[in-house]
Fold this protein.
Amino acid sequence: MASETAATSQRRRPAEDMLAELKARLREIADLRAANAVLSWDQATFMPEGGAAARGRQMAMLSRLAHERSVAPDIGRLIDTLTPYSESLPPASDDARLIRVARRDFEKAIKVPADYVARASAHAAASYQEWTRARPANDFKSMVPYLEKTLDLSREYSQFFAPYAHIADPHIDDADEGMNAASVSKLFGELKRGLRPLVDAICDQPEADDSCLRREFAKPRQLEFARRAAEEIGYDFQRGRLDLTHHPFCTRFSAGDVRITTRVNDHDLGDALFSTLHESGHAMYEQGIDPALAGSPLGHGVSAGVHESQSRLWENVVARSRGFWEYFYPLLQRAFVDELAGVPLETFHRAINKVARSLIRTDADEVTYNLHITLRFDLEVRMLEGRLAVKDLAEAWRAAMQADLRVTPPDDRDGCLQDVHWYSGAIGGAFHSYTIGNILAAQFYAAALKAHPEISGEIPRGAFATLHDWLRENIYRHGSKFPPNELVARATGAAMSMEPYLQYLREKYGALYKLPAMVN
Amino acid sequence: MASETAATSQRRRPAEDMLAELKARLREIADLRAANAVLSWDQATFMPEGGAAARGRQMAMLSRLAHERSVAPDIGRLIDTLTPYSESLPPASDDARLIRVARRDFEKAIKVPADYVARASAHAAASYQEWTRARPANDFKSMVPYLEKTLDLSREYSQFFAPYAHIADPHIDDADEGMNAASVSKLFGELKRGLRPLVDAICDQPEADDSCLRREFAKPRQLEFARRAAEEIGYDFQRGRLDLTHHPFCTRFSAGDVRITTRVNDHDLGDALFSTLHESGHAMYEQGIDPALAGSPLGHGVSAGVHESQSRLWENVVARSRGFWEYFYPLLQRAFVDELAGVPLETFHRAINKVARSLIRTDADEVTYNLHITLRFDLEVRMLEGRLAVKDLAEAWRAAMQADLRVTPPDDRDGCLQDVHWYSGAIGGAFHSYTIGNILAAQFYAAALKAHPEISGEIPRGAFATLHDWLRENIYRHGSKFPPNELVARATGAAMSMEPYLQYLREKYGALYKLPAMVN
């Protein structure tokens, strides 16, 4: 027996050594990416303008070093050798899952040739540069050749992953593993069928008055309030910080350093507040990942859709709820006595949930927002399929806006030029995750409420720990250990489903807009 | 003739290609170091405490990558092959000098084994950690074994560069190429002989009253004033920024991004102001380097001593002069009406130039400061030579302080434990550059005045461009192209010399302290 144990130990020892080596290699890649993220954060927050040229070069170099390491053949050999070992481990163990994710990342990475990465990234930079000029100039025509090349590159990218059922599938899978054009289209069809009557019913009512949000609000006090709200819902400033940038974002340098940024608008009380809470949701996810997964491919949020679900859950489901403001509104009134003392909670709550058909995705309310997304997804798919030519995009955009939102953009600036995504990246997987996030946010929240019905009584008292703990336990801590579908099933006991989201919207907006047919 | 030209071109073409390759390789090393500098700056300025552990690992990795590249054998082969080519170039051309400096850097780097670098850096980190505890606890004894190991490592380091005339020479040459223990000792002997009667004469006079600097000064206004002064002397905020840190420093990420930090003390008006101007001097040097040298080994300041000369020139020679305050004092009084309205310029100027024998180097005035440095240099040399045992350092420190400064530290905290240098690095080249900087500052300033006598009339009008331009033209723009001794000779027409510094001190302090024997 003793000799058998020794033999077993000898046979297994190398696998454990190799696993340690694989982890060290992957951690080095993660550290290179984290270093690059620091440079990128600094570029967006504090870098003087003179630093731009060298910074671009330095970031490109760190990207290249990380990429080279991520496709190194000996990483592949380590993963191959470790695969039988991983099959001998408990299927839900961290190590088994780490080897699975490392294999998936490696196999994806090696399919994309280095020269493609360089071409695509150079084109994205040039296209973005041109877009920053073309959008304010309302000049879609000059973007057409750029977007045509982006479309070519997006198709070329898909080819690396052939065969596929649909040409958008590789792009969708990059953002949200396990989803594809068919499943997203099915979900979005169902969503549109559910949303249309709701939007119609709301828009038949008198428009909500949100003028109480449009007064002049001193920026430092806005920022201080947003910071306090972020801290109270559970964003840990010992392991993070809040700065100002043009576009709000969340970035992770390590488990102990997950930063967020926001922006402040003198005449829009919602901007800083909801941006901050949105980014706090992303950050709480990253801060809540099991420290044992740090520096491994499991040590970050699992997909764009699940990540977005966490930002939307806190921004919309929690922070636009009546209960949330029962606690926070007196504090907000104290911070802005002159501006809000005479504004009842009711009025404020209706203002932050005002629904209106509008032109700009990022300004859209919680309900119509999704119509902006389904529209973009549909156009992406048609362009990839070759059913819509880039030169016809502006016209197709106007038609779709009229059909889905009953508004027509007066120009392309606030039409098909409004979002940076297509003009700085690829076509095919740029937008759908936002709505996946909305859908999952409602499903996760419903599951948390089912497990802890006391949550809805706690929020009006400013107590967020029960909800935060449930999210940490069921979602955050797992990082990328479980693929999105498995994570959803484990956390909610069911596959991803539209019903909780439609029910959430119907109940909330039925009550807010007093829509009798919707309330029950 | 045509075929000869072609042949020449063919023979020379590979050298130019190889030079381009060498430059690209060196730029990648510079970019890795710059990326690491961003991480280090962030660590000192904005990083939340939770980020510390991963940040240390990420920085160590970037250091290792830069070091591996800097000792790669093919860099050595490129330099070897290019050396005959460099000899065919004009001796003062950028390319000839670049190849020379690349060779010097490479030959130094390959002499130090990687395992030594790892051991020394691990020991430095451990020793620093212990020092942060031991200094406030006044516990020199616990530092003895750390310092003994530091001394062993410092000796081991020197051995890599054997043969040498003196065991401190390799350390001194690292900081200040072309200097050695003999030349520093000679300079410092001369300096002490010149300083002693000056310090005695000053200290025989009534002590200057600096209570006007010790009132309560609001931090934001201090910072605003320091920022304005930095901008007016010529620090370019389009290519830099000012932040707060525990210890002020200057760091360079690229030609367009050279940042400084400062600290602010409620009860010491000089702290933020002179720290900021000191770091601005370092930064203006880096900002003034010819952009053509960026990313090459010529693209930064040439030596510790020359760098320090630029910070000291602005901090002391300019910003503690009477003329400087003729312009700035009314502005300072306007910023601090309650605190300074009744304080005459005369009183303020004497306060910022108060000379007194004291315990702490970093608090010392311009005159006695150098005695703190010569004392440390002497102790370093004696330890390296084996004439002073580490365990006897505290006692030797007290004896030297009594002999040179006529004060005796009441404890080791404010004695031999006061400076971080020996406890976080090597022994042998830690301090001398500060005084080299003082000496060169006076010599450079005298040369600038000789070329542009109008400078002394411009400063009281707040006009710094003539001086700044002279420094840029004669020092800054060259980066590391000329070794320090050659740079000094080119800029001042003479070898480095003590006389301008002693003359500067005698004139300034003779006038301030009304010392008749010194004035003429």
